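pasting for ref
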Amino acid sequence: MIFTKSTREELNLDLKIYGDNLKRQDEIKFLGIRFDSRLTFSPLIDELKERCNSRLNLIEILSNKNWRLHHRTLRNLYKSLIGSILDYNFPCLNSLSDTNIKKLQTIQNSAVRSILKLRFDTPASILYHEAQNKLKFHTISNRLFELSERYVRAGLTNSVPLLLRL
């Protein structure tokens, strides 16, 4: 796979390993993370949305008043079912465009609305305020920054050579 931001025609390289030609791929999955040749991470976002939306349906069902679950229980469900997926992918998500970050933020917004039983037309500012105060949720971009900060701090604390050089 060749990673490039170039919009020109694709490079035609005749790469071989042990005498066999290597096929050119537009996408590859490595350690559960999907990379595309232009590093836009759009296929990754589409996959994350699909995985998170199926789990979001479970949260929406359980947030129904008939179940009488407390919002702390639903918050923990969100963190384990959806938050864990986003946290695992944070190294890639830090380089996302604002458009892709907004796609992920809509998933969290839907979860917050379900958990706190807020109306669909609740303004984003109120939604973020309620999510921060009642659920202790940060916005997706703030959460990604927090995870990056932790990662670097842990690397420096444990003297990881690559992070020390950076």
